[in-house]
Design a protein that fits this description.
This protein is of the alpha/beta class. It folds into two domains: 250 residues, tm_1862 like domain (pyruvate-formate lyase- activating enzyme); 72 residues, Arc Repressor Mutant, subunit A (Orthogonal Bundle), CATH 1.10.10. It contains 15 helices and 15 strands. α1 crosses α10 and α6 packs parallel to α8. The longest helix has 17 residues.
Length: 385
């Protein structure tokens, strides 16, 4: 099984915390769609005829694509790739885009799953983050999606904002569970360089992130969702049994995937590559690809992964999931890696931050608060070249 990711690099406005690649100008959207079609054609053999079990439109804001644009992209995908009959086909969407008319239009496409960037149901939070929707639209879009027949929904929430009290955070979680949304993704607010939030914090216009608040709200999150029947199947992701995100699960389990669009990443099991994060450059490289293939030089960068890098990625991603890091898979990297892992994980098992059941290692709830630190301590050093 393999995955296909398409990066749609346009947004109505810039969220203060976001460091993903996007443009707030839609002027290049028609040219971008043509370039994406060309890249799909050019890279049709990357996955070696593996069937697609998932297709994911991310961004940016893919819900800015109209029905015609989605139709031509799907036509190209289905003409070039084998797509499983029950493939998960996800489109990220902003609440302000999900009118009943838009949802009815989406129902005419192969899209069968919506990822809705709610972030919060509180006006103060949404204004602080500079989201394009308001609190009323946050609720209305979910009701519209359910009424339009979209059962497979996932909602994004953000915790740790200086505007989000514990009481508001509890209300945000309970609002989603009251709608019986089958999948929830929750992320701590982080201050990324080159974002408006980074500038505000640096200049004193916004307070620094309170790490204790974020940790406390993460613990609240785990407790409430567990009591409501959600499985904490990945650090940031919770799902009712059987509703795991197939696309993201492919990432975490090491399946191959092809990334299309500016800044998109691809992985084939031995190497990773990423496209140029510039709309004009991307469009320029792919505008005449069929006539002048050398123009594609500079479209992407590529890195062949060493055994140590592959091991480190496995440890990092596997430990984030409820399925954990499995010793037999670590043994596949060689005796040296197995010995290193067992030695470095031992103190975390002793502290009950990592739980060992037979030869499977998972994070405890306390360990989940320290996931990045624990993984980094288990990494194998990579020699400098």
């Amino acid at each position: 099984m393999a995955g296909l990711y398409l990066h749609i690099p346009f947004c109505k406005q810039a969220c203060h915390y976001c460091n993903f690649h996007f443009s707030t100008s839609l002027r290049q959207k028609p040219a971008m769609v043509r370039a994406i079609l060309n890249e799909l054609e050019w890279r049709k053999d990357y996955l070696n005829n593996q069937k697609l079990s998932s297709i994911y439109f991310g961004g940016g804001t893919p819900s800015l694509l109209n029905e015609v644009e989605l139709e031509v992209i799907f036509e190209k995908i289905y003409s070039l790739f084998q797509v499983e009959s029950n493939a998960e086909i996800t489109l990220e969407a902003n609440p302000d885009d999900l009118t009943l008319e838009k949802l009815q239009s989406l129902k005419q496409t192969p899209v069968n799953r919506l990822s809705i960037g709610i972030q919060s149901f509180a006006e103060a939070d949404l204004q602080f983050m500079n989201r394009a929707h308001d609190a009323a639209e946050a609720r209305l879009c979910i009701e519209n999606a359910l009424n339009a027949g979209f059962e497979n929904l996932t909602v994004d929430l953000i915790y740790g904002s200086p505007t989000t009290s514990d009481a508001q955070w509890i209300e945000n979680i309970q609002t989603v569970t009251n709608y019986n949304i089958p999948h929830i993704s929750c992320y701590a607010l982080t201050v990324e360089e080159k974002t408006a939030l980074h500038h505000f914090v640096k200049t004193g216009k916004a307070p620094a992130i309170d790490e204790e608040q974020a940790a406390r709200q993460f613990e609240i999150l785990m407790q409430i969702l567990k009591s409501n029947g959600y499985e904490h199947y990945e650090i940031s992701n919770f799902a009712k049994p059987g509703w795991y995100a197939r696309h993201n699960s492919n990432y975490w389990s090491g399946e191959h995937y092809l990334g299309i669009g500016p800044s998109a990443h691809s992985y084939d099991g031995v190497s990773r590559q990423w496209n140029v994060a510039n709309n004009t450059a991307y469009i320029g490289k792919l505008g005449n690809w069929a006539i002048f293939l050398p123009s594609l030089n500079g479209l992407f960068e590529k890195e062949v992964l060493t055994p140590a890098q592959l091991y480190n990625e496995y440890v990092m991603t596997a430990l984030r999931t409820m399925w954990g890091a499995q010793l037999f898979k670590i043994q596949d990297f060689g005796v040296e890696f197995e010995s290193h892992f067992l030695k470095t994980v031992k103190p975390f098992v002793a502290k009950n931050w990592v739980i060992r059941r037979n030869d499977v290692f998972t994070l405890s709830d306390q360990g989940k608060l320290l996931a990045d630190f624990i993984a980094s301590e288990l990494f194998m050093d990579i020699p400098e070249t």
